[in-house]
Write a structure and sequence with these properties.
heterodimer, A: 303 residues, mainly alpha, ABC transporter involved in vitamin B12 uptake, BtuC, 72% helix, globular, B: 350 residues, two-stranded antiparallel ribbon, 13 helices
Chain lengths: 303, 350
């Protein structure tokens, strides 16, 4: 296998990592019956909080932890509006995204001022479990957070399909009235699902600032949250299929980075737009058969 | 002893106009935490935020300048949301209109303003419609969720703008990533001398009135609101749901496109990649604050324009990061959403 393919596979796994966190986060939310459009803002918030905390404490893992907690808080806020108060999920989710983006920018400016080059930190080292072995070595040279992302996919499947918590999440996402009648606290289960989801989204954001970039920039998320929302439809709300969606998008993204450098005579923006366009086309193909949890977008009101 | 209880019943009618006021007060109380963290006095900050922009002619007019694109994106979002079509793509449709304005503005040199300006407006409207037609057709024909596609297309059009500005349209005079300056005859005339207030403000007010007229005074508007209230019921009434949504989506995209025209032809005279600092999303805030009532949306857009102007004053005078304005906007949106629930309760004396 030539180095082009090996490099492509390694890059695909790296690009897919934040998408896996984000999409799984959205999966928990939507399976409980809440479309969380706060994802873009939560990822941005996670990238910022993770960076600022790691910068302040000198520990990258404390940064990840701070992002996780910050994201859970963001999920709780989303739960307050969309679950407790039961207001429109589209608008409250966008409101959360606008709020978290603005709050992150506010504190970034307050802490770092207006630097000409974005502040940076020494980012995570990549693990090299197979050293310099040909092919397998470079492919497995990845960040710990990438390895973890591949572990939480089967974990999400196990939680959703093999535990009581997961049964409750799916129940309140499909038929909250019946779940309530069976003694499940709909508000509480949805709130927990949103908190788990928010935490995962924020870690996805922190992967970008603490591992991939080692810096925080205004355009760090650049619509990845919206891509995750699309991937979940593409994955038909199944944890296992999340992997394929993330790898497809990651692959197209990694491929365009490489095509740019091969001197193909096309403007580089064509390649940058490609993953988004491919996602829309994939949605158009998968769209008709996509059936989400029945109670998504419906606020539950206990009478 | 007098006892009160809260019960679920429609609140008295006088509550409704008070809700935005209460929401504004709560918002400023909540966001004052950030002002304090930035080592500034909240009362002083509120003064700069709300009163100082209105205290002199220049900044009062500047508030209207800032409100212009918000009135348009607010009107755009209102007609879509009222029809149950979740167009989150006003931001991208605005850029489509801005691209059309920059392109037309380069070639209209031989036309007098009386022709050039209508061509600019129609071109921008058409471009916004065209960009909005992609998610709208996907929604109506293939049942693809419009929220996702409009959001993704917002990212895509930014790449198109970047391509134009770094490639074919790069300004040959300055060499900067901006399109060549549009010709004089395509520039929107100023309404008042010694201010930036331009014809686009009138266009925006007219669009607000048109959306109000469509939604409340036409059979199309009746169909739109029927679809917005419930697609099944609307279908049962004999309304063609797909066609109604498509119409709403296209008008919505067109109006958002106009916001791109007013920014290019009224303010910048070039296409730049930062032509919108999120006007499309602020339009969603305006539409929500105005409870999808076009006249209320107009007032809300003016208020957001005031916050935008005020945030710059606060930043200049007190050194508070200018993003405080964005925080206030987003908080106001969430608080208002919560406050609308007050309409469903009333306090009774036992």
């Amino acid at each position: 296998m030539d180095t082009f393919i090996v490099g492509l596979i390694a890059a695909t796994l790296r690009v897919a990592t934040p998408l896996i966190y984000g999409t799984l986060g959205e999966l928990y939310s939507e399976r409980s019956g809440v479309l969380n459009l706060g994802i873009e803002g939560t990822m941005f918030f996670g990238a910022f909080v993770g960076f600022a905390a790691a910068d302040a404490t000198g520990s990258l893992w404390l940064g990840v932890l701070a992002a996780l907690l910050g994201g859970m808080l963001a999920g709780l806020l989303m739960a307050f509006f969309s679950v407790r108060l039961g207001v429109n999920q589209h608008v409250s989710g966008l409101g959360i995204t606008l709020l978290l983006t603005a709050v992150s920018l506010f504190f970034f400016r307050l802490i770092y001022g207006e630097p000409r080059i974005p502040p940076s930190i020494r980012s995570f080292d990549q693990l090299q479990p197979f050293g310099n072995l040909p092919i397998i070595g470079p492919i497995t040279t990845q960040y710990a957070l990438t390895y973890i992302s591949f572990l939480i996919i089967p974990l999400a499947w196990w939680v959703l399909y093999r535990t009581n918590v997961g049964l409750n999440i799916r129940a309140v996402g499909e038929n909250p009235e019946a779940a309530d009648a069976a003694g499940v606290n709909v508000y509480r289960v949805r709130s927990y699902a949103l908190m788990i989801g928010g935490g995962l989204m924020a870690v996805g954001g922190a992967f970008l600032s603490l591992a991939q970039l080692g810096a925080f920039t205004y355009g760090i998320i650049a619509g990845r949250g919206w891509v995750c929302i699309a991937l979940i439809i593409f994955a038909n709300w199944q944890p296992a299929k999340v992997l394929w969606g993330a790898l497809l998008f990651g692959g197209v993204f990694a491929l365009q980075l490489r095509l740019q450098s091969t001197g193909l005579n096309l403007p580089y923006e064509t390649f940058l737009a490609l993953p988004y366009v491919v996602t829309i086309i994939a949605l158009a193909i998968a769209g008709r058969n996509a059936t989400g949890p029945a109670a998504v977008l419906k606020a539950y009101k206990r009478e | 002893m007098v006892k009160f209880r809260i019960e679920k019943a429609p609140a008295p009618l006088w509550i409704k106009p008070l809700i935005p006021l209460i929401a504004i007060i709560v918002t400023f109380l909540v966001t004052s935490i950030l002002v304090v963290m930035a080592n500034a006095n909240p009362l002083e900050a509120y003064y700069y935020f709300l009163l100082s922009p209105l205290s002199n002619r220049v900044s009062a007019l500047e508030t209207l300048v800032k409100a212009t694109p918000l009135l348009l994106t607010g009107a755009s979002v209102t007609i879509a949301f009222a029809s149950g079509y979740w167009n989150i793509g006003a931001e991208g449709q605005l850029y489509a209109g801005a691209i059309a304005a920059a392109g037309l503005g380069m070639v209209l040199g031989n036309f007098p303003p009386i022709l050039a300006i209508p061509i600019m407006l129609i071109g921008g409207f058409a471009a916004g419609m065209l960009w909005a037609s992609i998610p709208a057709l996907l929604k109506v024909k293939l049942a693809v969720d419009e929220v996702v596609t409009t959001l993704l297309l917002n990212s895509v059009i930014l790449f198109i703008v970047s391509f134009l500005l770094n490639g074919p349209w790069r300004d040959p005079v300055s060499g900067w990533p901006q399109s060549p300056q549009i010709v004089d005859s395509a520039q929107l005339p100023r309404l008042i001398s010694r201010s930036r207030l331009h014809l686009g403000f009138l266009v925006a007010i007219i669009m607000i009135l048109i959306v109000w007229f469509i939604l409340t005074r036409t059979s199309l508007g009746l169909k739109m609101r029927a679809v917005g209230h419930g697609q099944e019921a609307a279908r049962f009434m004999g309304v063609n749901v797909g066609q109604t949504m498509l119409t709403a989506a296209l008008i919505s995209g067109g109006i958002a496109g106009l916001a791109g025209v007013t920014e290019v032809a009224g303010i910048h005279f070039h296409l730049i990649d930062a032509i919108s600092p999120g006007f499309g999303y602020s339009g969603i805030i305006a539409a929500t604050l105005g409870a999808l009532n076009p006249l209320g949306v107009g007032l809300a857009a003016m208020f957001i324009g005031l916050i935008d102007t005020g945030a710059q004053t606060v930043s200049r005078s007190l050194g508070v990061p200018v993003y405080l304005g964005n925080v206030v906007q987003a908080t106001l949106l969430l608080v208002t959403l919560g406050m609308f629930l007050l309409q469903n309760y009333r306090i009774r004396r036992d």
